[in-house]
Design goal:
Pfam families: Ferritin. This protein is mainly α and 189 residues long. It has six helices and no strands.
């Protein structure tokens, strides 16, 4: 009987938090605690907005319609995948700085600066304009955050924000924005 008791998962445990949100572990990173605290705060905001942008891409991917359905369906899924990579990179940078990254939908809903879309389907121009607005929010925060990280000597956070967040979001803005150009699919003549 003792052997089977060892195989029984002990899932009824008392939950306990081992590091409160908003605190930093002391790590020998060559950065001041203030610099790390600033970067963690900036990065958590970028993370919340990037998670919302990622999920907007998936929502619009599923709900796409119209003459360019197939092309946009594929494009939005490609952009979703890139945003998912960025989410992981930002969250891991926060953890590497000794902080705690946000991680759940309710955290995103509380923190994001991106307006919540309706649950229903929107027309294509509205969906694309909503994505462009979300990118603007992420890019503005990334530019401000990169400057702050540079001033505090946090080269790693500056590099992440410039090399990954900004350089990934800018071409996505371009690709999405071009779909809103007022060009016809066919010539009238």
């Amino acid at each position: 009987m003792a052997d089977t008791d060892q195989a029984q998962p002990q899932y009824k445990i008392e939950y306990r938090e081992i590091q409160p949100f908003g605190t930093l572990k002391d790590l020998p990173l060559g950065l001041s605690e203030n610099a790390r605290k600033q970067s963690v705060s900036i990065l958590n905001q970028v993370l919340a907005d990037t998670m919302m942008l990622r999920d907007l891409y998936k929502k619009h991917h599923w709900q796409m319609s119209g003459a360019t359905f197939y092309q946009l369906h594929l494009l939005l899924d490609t952009h979703y995948e890139k945003q998912a990579e960025l989410v992981d990179m930002v969250a891991e940078r926060i953890q590497a700085l000794g902080g705690i990254s946000i991680a759940t939908p309710h955290d995103v809903a509380e923190m994001t600066r991106i307006p919540r879309p309706p649950r229903g389907r929107e027309d294509v121009p509205t969906m694309l304009a909503r994505l462009l607005e979300a990118h603007r929010v992420v890019l503005e925060q990334a530019h401000e955050g990169a400057k702050t990280a540079d001033e505090s000597g946090d080269d790693g956070t500056n590099d992440l924000l410039v090399s990954d967040i900004i350089r990934s979001n800018e071409p996505q803005v371009w690709f999405i924005g071009e779909h809103l150009a007022a060009t016809a699919l066919q010539r009238a003549d």
